[in-house]
Amino acid sequence: MQRKRVLPLAAMLLCAPALAGTVPAAAAASPQAGPASAPVPAGPLRILLTNDDGYNAPGIRIAFERLTAAGYDVTMVAPLTNQSGAGTKTSNTPSLTVRHPEPKVWAVDGTPGDSVAFGLSEVFAGQAPDLVVSGTNFGPNVAGLATHSGTVGGAIAGLEGGVPAIALSTGGVTAPDPVTTVNAMGPTVDFAIKLIERLRTHASPGGPLLPKGVGLNVNHPVVGADGKGTPAGLASTFQDPQPLLKADYTDAGDGTWKLGVKVDLRTPARGGDVEAVSAGKIAISPMNADWNTGPADFALTSTLIAGLRP
């Protein structure tokens, strides 16, 4: 099932000169759920920073450094080890190992969802953060990749806890090159800072950074031979419905199957995140933490089941 995107918000953010890049796509709004978000504070924003690549990965370290340098009060609560592909999973074990290796840094031996849940419950006990930032992730989280992404899962956990959230990813739709992707992580975070300030500017007095239950999935392309180039613009997008990757199974003949993965890039949906990133643009897709598909599909389902009886 595909999460519907709540696009009017991103359209508003992208229409001003400082961030403008393209015309936003249209999509149906879905119901907003979850606890109310906290109002934007007058002082430095308090950010819970997480990811799925692990607390020592270059993307989250660059984010920690630059967000702190920009004046935010940043606390990292991230997985102890690489949890790429964990999606929205949370652990059901009776205990979790949590380390506190340095000031403002917590490492949770679990998923991004576990990390955010621990952060909201314990690290930020009594006063929720103003924003959850998840990433920046190594490689894109567009199309079907977003559904299974631990980076997006960390942001979803924030939304479920009533905290506005942004998922950050760096990469194109092809296999990422390590050097150029890491180089592009700096521009990714620099853009995120611009975006956060835009959210703060547009927040209503006493209101949250984003509407209740709404987060943003931000995908920054790798531009230039060294990865440090400037994107061609940005676009308010939706999650392209294509899976993007295809599993490839080979029978080993002993009851086991070897598993590989192939890129299966189809014609991008017009106005979707794959189209934007493929064109060298930053894709910004609003998302929500539930699986509601919107009023049109609700009405269709009601029509289809009319007259049925148990």
Task: Please explain how this structure is put together.
This protein has 310 residues and is of the alpha/beta class. The chain has a single domain, classed as Survival protein SurE-like phosphatase/nucleotidase (Stationary-phase Survival Protein Sure Homolog, Chain: A), CATH 3.40.1210. 29% of the residues lie in helices and 22% in strands. It has 8 helices and 11 strands. The chain has a 9-stranded mixed beta sheet with strand order 3-4-2-1-5-6-7-11-8, sandwiched between helices. A two-stranded antiparallel sheet has the order 9-10. β3 and β4 form a beta hairpin. α2 (58-69) runs parallel beside α6 (178-202) and α3 (112-123) packs parallel to α5. The longest helix is centred in the middle third of the chain and has 25 residues, at 178-202.
Give short descriptive properties of this protein.
310 residues; alpha/beta; Stationary-phase Survival Protein Sure Homolog, Chain: A; nine-stranded mixed beta sheet; two-stranded antiparallel sheet; 11 strands; 22% strand; globular; disordered N terminus
| Total discrete domains | 1
Biggest β-sheet: strands ordered side by side in the sheet: 3-4-2-1-5-6-7-11-8
Known CATH architecture = 3-Layer(aba) Sandwich
- Overall pLDDT, averaged? 89
CATH overall fold name? Stationary-phase Survival Protein Sure Homolog, Chain: A
Q: Strand count, sense and closure of the main sheet?
A: 9 strands, mixed
Tell me what portion of residues adopts beta-strand conformation.
15-25%
Q: What is the string of helix and strand elements?
A: HEHEEEHEHHEHEEEEHEH
Q: How much helicity do the residues have?
A: 25-40%
**For the terminal residues, how far apart are their CA atoms?**
25 Å
Structural class: alpha/beta
Radius of gyration: 19 Å
